[in-house]
Amino acid sequence: MTALADDLRQVLTGLLPRMRRFGLALTGSAADTDDLVQNACERVLRHRDQLNEVTRLDAWLYGVMRNLWIDETRHRKVRRHDQIEAAADIVGEDGQATVDGRIALAAVRRAMNDMPPEQRTILMLVCVDGLSYKDAAEVLGVPIGTVMSRLSRARLDLHERLSHRPASATVTPFPLRAGGMRPGRDSGRSS
User: Fold this and answer.
1) How far apart (Å, rounded) are the C-alpha atoms in residues 122 and 191?
2) What is the C-alpha separation between 62 and 22, in angstroms, rounded?
3) What is the pLDDT of residue 71?
4) Which whole-number Å values give the CA distances from 108 to 48, 159, 181, 188, in the listed order?
5) pLDDT for position 112
6) 135-187: pLDDT as tens digits
7) What is the C-alpha to C-alpha distance for residues 28 and 87, in angstroms, rounded to an integer?
8) Is residue 59 a contact partner of residue 13, using CB atoms and an 8 Å limit?
9) Could you count the other beta carbons within 10 Å of the beta carbon of residue 71?
10) What are the helix and strand counts (H, E) for the chain?
11) How far apart (Å, rounded) are the C-alpha atoms in residues 60 and 120?
12) 9: closest CA among 39, 48, 67?
């Protein structure tokens, strides 16, 4: 076994949790995610000679996973097994903060599971895994502007799902004084 192959296996092992999260965002199924992550690792190990051209291994892996999932969905009718709630358990200390955190995370998972796949995917790439807009654009094969607009819509959609009301309903109107004038606008005028 070459040193490069050993190093690559070690790096892949460290990236498995991130690959699994991204896989869940793509597939919505723990069973499909396991298959997707395994297939991606196999493909990367087989094509490790292409690593010289790669600047970010994680972005390359996400692209490989995305392409494999697209190929898979083209070849079979996707059956959902587990919901996205089946993602890794949260480990924490006992107490109210842990319970509140689990409740909030469960609400976010439910809301994300109901979102369109392209919104769920962009949120995972940028907000969870911390990819830049440029890297996310490369992974998804879309322009940066598309990433920005999808992310904006995804954040708004997630906010609406979590607050159970449209985001426009959360905007606080500017208070008016008696007589309908805004503060500071009626200064200098006589009554």
Assistant:
1) 55
2) 7
3) 85
4) 36, 9, 41, 50
5) 84
6) 999 988 999 999 999 999 999 998 888 887 665 555 555 555 555 444 444 44
7) 10
8) no
9) 11
10) 7, 0
11) 19
12) 48
**Domain regions of the chain by residue span:** 3-165
Homologous superfamily (CATH) of 3-165 is: PhyR, sigma-like (SL) domain (1.20.140.160)
Mean residue pLDDT across the chain = 76
How many Cα atoms are found within 13 Å in the side-chain-facing hemisphere of 50?
Answer: 10
Joined tokens for residue 140: 């998804």
Q: What is the pTM of this model?
A: 0.49
11 has pLDDT over 70: yes
Q: Taking 90 as the threshold, does the pLDDT of residue 106 lie above it? A: no
- Quick one: tokens of 128? 């969870």
Q: Which residue has the tokens 């298959």?
A: 35
Query: Which residue is listed with tokens 């996310």?
Result: 136
Other C-beta atoms lying within 10 Å of the C-beta of residue 138: 19
